[in-house]
C-alpha cells in the first residue's frame, strides 16, 4: 500500500481532492458566519461579495499550498490546513471587531467595493502569514 501512496500522480490527486472538499466545507462555514448569501449575491452581480469570496478562496487555497509543501502525510496536511483556516476565520472576526463604525457584512452585502476589496486583501495577506508559519 505504501507504493500506492508514493506514486506522485496518486499524491497529487489525493491532495487536489482533499483541498477541494475542504474548500467547499470552509466556504460553507464562511456562509454561516456572514449575514449575506455569497452565491446569491454573486449571481446578482455584487462585486464586493465576489471580491471578498475570491479572497477567501485564494486564502484557503494558499494556506493549503503551504501545508502541502511542508508536510508529507495527507492527514498532517489536512490538520495544518484546518488550523490555518481557523486562523483565517479568526482574522475575519478581528477585522469585523476593529471596524466598529460600520458593519463589514452589511457593507459587503450593499456592494461597497472598497470594503470588499479590503476584505479580499486581508484574506490573501493573512494566508501568506499563516502559510509561512505552518512548517
Automatic annotation (TrEMBL):
The keyword Transmembrane applies. Keywords: Cell membrane, Membrane, Transmembrane, Transmembrane helix. InterPro entries: DUF350. The chain crosses the membrane at residues 12-33, 45-68, 74-95, 115-134. One of its GO terms (cellular component) is plasma membrane. It is found in: Cell membrane. It is a multi-pass membrane protein. Pfam families: DUF350. Signal peptide: none annotated. Belongs to the UPF0719 family. This is DUF350 domain-containing protein. It comes from Anoxybacillus flavithermus.
